Task: structure prediction
Amino acid sequence: MKKVELLTVTKNRRINKEYVIIHAASNEKLPEIFPGQFVEIKVENGPNTFLRRPISIHEVDESKNEIILLIQEIGEGSRLLAKLREGDTIDLIYPLGNAFSIPSKGSKALLVGGGVGVAPMLILGRVLKENGVEPHFLLGARSKEILMELDNYEKIAEVGVTTEDGSLGIKGFVTDHPLMNEKLGEMEIVYTCGPDPMMRAVAKKAKEKDIKCEVSLENLMACGIGACLCCVVDTKDGHKCTCTEGPVFDTKELKEW
Amino acid sequence: MVNLGIDLNGLSLKNPVMTASGTFGFGEEYEDFINIDDLGGIVVKGTTLHHREGNPYPRMAETPSGMLNAVGLQNKGVDYFISDIYPRIKHYKTGIFVNVSGSTIEDYIATAEKINELEHIPGIELNISCPNVKEGGMAFGVHCPSAVAVTEAVRKVYKKHLMVKLSPNVTDVTEIAKGVEGVGADSVSLINTLLGMAINVEKRKPALSTITGGLSGPCVKPVAVRMVWQVFNAVKIPIVGMGGIMNAYDAIEFMLAGATAVQIGTANFIDPTVTIKVIDGIKDYMTRHNISDVNELIGGMIIE
Result:
């Protein structure tokens, strides 16, 4: 069940010049949250941040009833969120959207995240592992300086890295990595979230090898609950709401993918 | 105890707070957050005779204290509404209005005739003011003769409460209001969105796929209040006021300007519980001001 709730910020940690990680605690037991779901955050202060911001759930800490969010400072809304301090409250509507599918036990899965699109991959990797699936992370960034801290991912599985400037891992795009090439055939499923051109390139490679591919779309949204019909994506069954029928779509459902 | 009940030209609503079409789905989308039965009324998503896919993405742009939309009446058509949605929502103990739109007068008539048969739908809101469709919609609502013609035609076949939703994109809104009143509209609702536009300066591209779209949110409120006041002074039928209502104060402002009821739209996107807060806030205001009947607020602005 979706709810609107004030949570308390317990931690807001800057991990590099572009990203912060916010921990927000609920007074109640968290509802069940699935990998791929998101929250709509209300950003206070200012006419230019009128609507809520949809943000992927990065991880949850059930022992502390905390939701963990990865925020990239890209506009006025995210800049204000990055300034939140311990003890501040944030107004969230959550949990929203569908979830990534979980393949059968013993299969291998490739989780490809680029930029802030790495956010849902952490919770997904953990849940896959708990379900007996073997996750492989592949994270891409422009440069080492803005790549996520890798420890959390490495605790779960092997992490492949690409950077556009070659400052860490393989130089180039995620699609240049062996995980997207020689090793791709071993995968039961490929999940991807990140910039649109990256997701399309990943989806194309998966399609060539006839591997199921799920993408998490970041369409502009107003309500987040399927009322406004603003965030639609063109599917083979007509327009669907990214907020309720997504954000995760099997690329086979999408038109022009 | 305060009385919140209002009379919309013979149709009783338990309170003056309704939801605006296109912002509240079919009510179901909000069931996790509020009890729909607590509302005075809901106006469900714009319905047309045939299925419409709506406009391409992007359909929305955030603007200072508001937003532009260009959804374009995406809906599965009136037959789908009757077969699939109506059975799920007819139990709501609130005034359910269907917002009816069309490309031709014949479309409006055919859709209204079908809705007329639905026992638990006490009224329709005739949408002659949608700015996001190429044919019909606002084209009917910005000229008096066509606004009158479509209202008159629907009036002949639709036997229940006929609310007509007016466009603010006109020189004189009172002319249209008087026109539709003259051919049998039971009430008017206003304002629909204001025609607007935004450009992504970095990309030098329009923010919306349709280039122009409908502006809503608090940025339009003063325009809406002004129009409600003008229409209040021009017609005798009740007015349902809307445009940027975010809280009880805003709702009361519309009532003081002459609205019998209000619709809350864009605010639902920011706070899905806002409607209930507005109802509670109106009660608090009445208690503080020793007002026992909400009807005392209608047109209650004091001019010295």
Notes: The longest strand of chain B covers residues 41-47. The CA atoms of residues 22 and 154 of chain B lie 21 Å apart.
